[in-house]
Amino acid sequence: MQDPATKWGKDKPHPGYESFHDDFDGDEAFGKYDRKVPDHFSGPGSGDDQFMNSMISKYALELSKPDGTPTGEFVFKYPHAKQAAYEIVDTHLGLKGAEAEDYLSKYFDKTW
Predict the structure, then answer these.
(1) Using alpha carbons only, what angle is made at residue 95 by residues 90 and 96, rounded to the nearest 5 degrees?
(2) Are residues 8 and 61 in the same domain?
């Protein structure tokens, strides 16, 4: 595998890693990336906070240094939180499709 063709740095900082970049082996732009969920959120059966494991694994953005090195810091920006909210209203309120959309249209921005 070669280095990514896109060069990141101080003048062109890396945008971070979306959850769907996990297990990416590409040569362009992001290069190889494997998401490492912090040990204290290591998944089902570990006694951890499984909600946080799910949020980090499925939705959060992992911040990176300007050169593209992952930092292990995970954040939610508006689109990540909105995407997670659809799962939550489905799982906890049983709302799907138009019902979920109506509910989130009414409450999400107020809560955000």
Answers:
(1) 85
(2) yes
